[in-house]
Write a structure and sequence with these properties.
Shape: globular
CATH architecture: 3-Layer(aba) Sandwich
Mean pLDDT: 88
Distance between the termini: 46 Å
Number of helices: 10
Strand order of the largest sheet: 2-1-3-4
Structural class: alpha/beta
Strand content: 15-25%
CATH topology: Rossmann fold
Low-confidence stretches: 254-264, 269-278
Oligomer: single chain
Largest sheet: 4 strands, parallel
Helix content: 25-40%
């Protein structure tokens, strides 16, 4: 068949993704992306260090980010996102801004980080008090709380696992249990940190149960990237993507859950979908 009669492939808009070396949730990122957008994913060099503040700093050095952005620039993405939560909050708000500036210098695309996207999302859902879920150790979680405090966001409750490895093996059920534990005080929203902690399928169910917007690391990253493209992230009923879900500050019940309690998945539905740390 002469493919010339078909006019060739349809042009895709591109988003570059810089991820830590052990990132394993490529599939989850794609689930938020509309059909007309492609992701170009690259990883930072391997470092033989467990999940910690030291590792967060090492995978986020400006030279490392700049090299990754330059590599992605060959594919001409319109936006580049650093998909790493701890790596982008470890230096505080000033450190996050410096990372974005370094990425912008290295390429021609608009750049963002997961932690910067988090602050945009918190503002979008009008939250000043959040409950926090992390798989991290106390020291890494504490650095996230400091980052949020710098931005004027109060953490009213938290739950964590204290993991230094194998974060991609955390099942959905544990994420749900941590969310319930974290929402102890008055909170405007829940944030589930770590781009390698699977969250895609539990967000709508948690919002239905907790009656508040639920944000996650991968969700806010892709939402912010799509917004910079002038398009919208796609996904199941959730407050960040569907503002009509919370017109009065209280979430309406998602249509799929009407008439009964939310059905929470036991874990990721496909082995390639759910992964590591960040």
């Amino acid at each position: 068949m002469d493919v010339s009669i078909l006019g060739g492939p349809h042009p895709q808009r591109g988003v570059g993704i810089v991820a830590p070396f052990d990132f394993a949730l490529d599939r989850e990122l794609w689930r938020w992306v509309p059909d007309e957008v492609s992701l170009y994913v690259t990883r930072t060099p391997f470092v033989p260090v467990e999940v910690s503040l030291d590792l967060a700093r090492m995978v986020s050095e400006h030279e490392t980010l700049e090299e990754a952005v330059r590599a992605l620039s060959v594919a001409e993405p319109e936006v580049v996102a650093y998909a790493c939560t701890s790596g982008s909050f470890v230096g505080g708000t000033a450190g996050e801004r410096a990372m974005v500036e370094a990425m912008n210098r290295a390429g021609e695309a608009d750049s963002l980080t997961t932690s910067g996207a988090l602050l945009e999302a918190v503002k979008e859902v009008s939250a000043s008090r959040i409950a926090l879920v992390t798989p991290y150790t106390d020291s890494v979680t504490g650095a996230l709380e400091d980052y949020l405090a710098e931005a004027g966001v109060q953490v009213t409750g938290r739950a964590g696992l204290g993991l230094t490895r194998h974060i991609w093996k955390v099942p959905y059920r544990d994420v749900v249990d941590m969310a319930r534990e974290a929402v102890r005080g008055a909170a405007d929203a829940l944030f589930i940190s770590c781009t390698n902690l699977p969250t895609y399928d539990v967000i709508p169910q948690l919002e239905a149960e907790l009656r508040m917007p639920v944000l996650s690391a991968n969700q806010v990253t892709m939402w912010a990237a799509m917004r910079r493209l002038g398009t919208r992230a796609v996904g199941p009923y959730q407050a960040l993507l569907n503002p009509r879900a919370w017109p009065d500050g209280v979430l309406d019940q998602p249509p799929a859950a009407a008439g009964g309690g939310p059905v929470l998945p036991e874990g990721p539905s496909t082995p390639e979908a759910e992964g590591g740390w960040a």
